[in-house]
UniProtKB/TrEMBL annotation, chain A:
It comes from Primorskyibacter flagellatus. This is Carbohydrate ABC transporter membrane protein 2, CUT1 family. Gene3D superfamilies: MetI-like. Belongs to the binding-protein-dependent transport system permease family. Residues 86-278 form the ABC transmembrane type-1 domain. Keywords: Membrane, Transmembrane, Transmembrane helix, Transport. The chain crosses the membrane at residues 18-39, 85-109, 121-142, 154-177, 198-219, 261-283. GO terms for biological process: transmembrane transport. Its main location: membrane. It holds the Pfam family BPD_transp_1. It is a multi-pass membrane protein.
Automatic annotation (TrEMBL), chain B:
GO terms for biological process: carbohydrate transport. Keywords: ATP-binding, Nucleotide-binding, Transport. GO terms for molecular function: ABC-type transporter activity; ATP binding; ATP hydrolysis activity. Transmembrane segments: none annotated. SUPFAM superfamilies: MOP-like, P-loop containing nucleoside triphosphate hydrolases. This is Carbohydrate ABC transporter ATP-binding protein, CUT1 family. One of its GO terms (cellular component) is ATP-binding cassette (ABC) transporter complex, substrate-binding subunit-containing. SMART domains: AAA (SM00382). PROSITE patterns: ABC_TRANSPORTER_1, ABC_TRANSPORTER_2. Residues 4-234 form the ABC transporter domain. It comes from the Bacteria.
Length: 293, 370
């Protein structure tokens, strides 16, 4: 990919190149504008926003809105700030992502290297699970969680995301392992390695790119989820997204826009970080299955 | 009962039978080569011995013990794969001892074994490299090392040389042969290269269409092919096969084959081959190129060299020999002449035919006639 960066397919003239870059710059600006607005307004006192200077840089720079959003703002009935909900989200996302990735890898391993009668049907059903709209499962899922005593808890949310995540993570790993040479698995079998040893010692060490793709995908989806969070959590198990909504809704009297902006950035920050750290592997991993070499 | 017994084994995928009833018994220390064209079931049979493929019916036994239900790891076999199948995340040393580690051999012993094998194969300087940093030939050696270190009862090789270039292939072939002579371990070796089969094996199983066509020593398979498939497959250039007719003249059997000018060439069979009882029968006569040569190149020990004058169609100098083609029975027939024979296309030239080496086949069944 990077090796042929210098070899452009079509040679463009300077004029048309200027037009292209100008257009791209404009698009970039258009996309970055909201981010600019959020950052700028989260760093100024409310009075400046009310005075109508949305686009202007702050006259007085302040971190007060961030502090308020984090630890003192009114969420629903209590003035706890977003902090407890941020931890709720972390405690929900980390196990959900980790477990769904590991299970997806195991599923992909079995579906490609330990094939059995009916394996394609099972894979088809898992895939089908990916594309069932969230809304359809809300009521059955609520009933299920109630029955097993997980309703309104963080483990309950972990479970829901896990079930939804496995379809995608299995799809990723199955397609990746399809390209993985079966002779390696056979060689390891003859060498005396068992099912899990082969998985751990042979498959996993070569699974870096697809694991990154899977983790990013699951992390952003689960972190950003609002519907399941709103449906299956109680006040003290709410994830960040739901709490942010409550923050914006529950402000009595004046709307503290600067605090809302700060809260919104906080809610978006983890996914942003994941992309910045691992984004390049994301593209690489997605390409790895489709083209070789 | 042999060291490795394949007893009436078959393999089917659903309704498709890819390996028909196969019986092979191998003695300890033998080098059996399974050879045949692509898709004939060689790898399938090898994988069945390894335990990587289920046996549909029949049985395979090693040292008299049935391998039914025995895991590949517990069969005390080692295998070298066509793609080498080196673990990409481990270095050469780790690759070699992985099997020992899995079988619970303690580290000091593993290291001793690794060093011994690395010495034997001259790969000591590569031990810390990853497979991705090796050339094809080096990978091949490492794959061999991984098999050797286990000191197994049987080595299984699936086309181990087919990914190497021609020169390296010949070198490695010699090395494998040397290794076998040194270690005397039983080997089952798959290839589609008949030269590899002839040079390496103590016995060859020629396979085609899921059937073992012939099982025998290289000499048996080469000199006495059981049918036309084996005759055509083994040997390069391949055996000349052309239509002829058996006749009895003066109480002796001869083969009559049409020359280019429409005349019959008369080729007397050696005595005591019993062809007299086939008087008048149409056959396909098989003659290896080296059984058709110039007058002075002919085998002096043969009692049955017969010279015919035939029209030279093509000459192909090949360095050590010159291949000379003519027409017999309406087919192009190639002889192997000495390189310095002065022969040119268009000439009529004496061809010395060694009928001791002639074989006959039935044109319909393609089986041997004797
Ligand atoms: N999983 C399978 N399902 C159905 N048919 C199969 C399967 N595996 C192999 N076959 C068929 O079995 C036959 C024998 O295959 P095998 O791999 O043993 O051939 P081979 O002699 O090793 O050929 P090559 O020289 O190309 O490696 C082939 O016709 C192949 O199509
Ligand atoms: Mg094969």
């Amino acid at each position: 990919m990077s090796s042929n960066a210098t070899a452009t397919v079509v040679r463009t003239g300077a004029g048309s190149r200027f037009v292209i870059y100008t257009l791209l710059a404009l698009f970039c600006l258009y996309y970055l504008l909201p981010l600019y607005v959020m950052v700028v307004n989260s760093l100024k006192p409310l009075s400046e926003i009310q005075a109508g200077g949305m686009m202007a840089l702050p006259d007085v720079w302040t971190l007060a809105p961030w502090k308020s959003a984090w630890s003192t703002a009114q969420i629903g009935v209590e003035a706890t700030g977003l902090r407890p909900f941020f931890w709720n989200s972390i405690v929900m996302v980390v196990p959900a992502v980790a477990i769904s990735t590991v299970l997806g890898a195991l599923n992909g391993y079995v579906l490609t290297k330990w094939r059995f009668r009916g394996d394609t049907i099972i894979f088809g059903l898992l895939l089908f699970g990916c594309f069932i709209p969230f809304q359809m499962v809300l009521i059955p899922m609520a009933r299920m969680l109630g029955l097993v005593g997980l309703a309104g808890t963080v483990p309950g949310l972990v479970f829901v995301h896990l079930v939804y995540g496995i379809g995608f993570s299995t799809l990723y790993f199955r397609n990746y392992y399809q390209q993985f040479p079966t002779e390696l698995v056979r060689a390891a079998m003859i060498d005396g390695a068992g099912f899990f040893t082969i998985f751990r010692r042979i498959m996993l060490p070569s699974s870096g790119p697809i694991a990154v793709v899977c983790v990013i995908w699951q992390f952003t989806n689960i972190w950003n989820d609002f519907l399941f969070g709103a449906s299956f959590s109680d006040f003290d198990s709410q994830p960040m997204t739901v709490a942010l909504n409550n923050l914006v809704q529950s402000s009595t009297g004046v709307k503290e826009y600067n605090v809302h902006f700060a809260g919104a950035i906080m809610a978006a920050l983890p996914t942003l970080l994941v992309y910045i750290v691992a984004g390049r592997y994301f593209v690489r991993g997605l390409m790895a299955g489709s083209v070789k070499g | 009962m042999g060291f490795l017994d394949i007893k009436n084994a078959t393999k089917s995928y659903g309704a498709v039978k890819v390996l028909h009833e196969t019986d092979i018994s191998i003695e300890e220390g033998e080098f059996l080569v399974l050879v045949g064209p692509s898709g004939c079931g060689k790898s399938t049979l090898l994988n069945m011995i390894a335990g990587l493929e289920e046996i549909t019916t029949g049985d395979i036994a090693i040292k008299g013990q049935s391998m039914a239900g025995v895991r590949p790891a517990d069969r005390n076999i080692a295998m070298v794969f066509q793609s080498y199948a080196l673990y990409p995340n481990m270095n050469v040393g780790q690759n070699i001892v992985f099997g020992l580690e899995m079988h619970g051999v303690p580290k000091p012993e593993r290291d001793t074994a690794m060093n011994k094998v690395a010495d034997l194969l001259q790969i000591k300087h590569l031990l810390d490299r990853k497979p991705g940093q090796l050339s094809g030939g080096q990978r091949q050696r490492v794959a061999m090392g991984r098999a050797l270190v286990r000191d197994p009862d049987v080595f299984l090789f699936d086309e181990p040389l087919s990914n190497l270039d021609a020169k390296l292939r010949v070198d490695m072939r010699t090395e494998i042969k040397k290794l076998h002579q040194k270690l005397k371990t039983t080997i089952v070796y798959v290839t589609h290269d008949q030269i590899e089969a002839l040079t390496l094996s103590t016995r060859i199983a020629v396979m085609f269409g899921g059937h073992v066509q012939q099982l025998g020593t290289p000499k048996e398979v080469y000199d006495n092919p059981a049918n036309m498939f084996v005759a055509g497959f083994m040997g390069s250039p391949s055996m000349n096969l052309f239509p002829a007719k058996i006749a009895v003249e003066n109480g002796k059997a001869v083969a009559k084959a049409k020359l280019a000018d429409g005349q019959d060439a008369t080729l007397p069979f050696p005595d005591a081959r019993g062809f007299e009882r086939h008087d008048g029968r149409e056959i396909i006569l098989g003659l290896r190129p080296e059984a058709i040569t110039d007058r002075d190149g002919a085998d002096r020990n043969s009692q049955s060299v017969h010279v015919i004058d035939a029209h030279v169609d093509i000459t192909e100098p090949a360095g050590s020999d010159t291949f000379v083609s003519t027409q017999l029975g309406g087919k192009e027939v190639t002889g192997r002449f000495r390189a310095d024979v002065d022969v040119h296309p268009g000439q009529t030239f004496p061809f010395a035919i060694n009928m001791e080496k002639a074989v006959a086949f039935d044109p319909k069944t393609e089986e041997r006639v004797s």
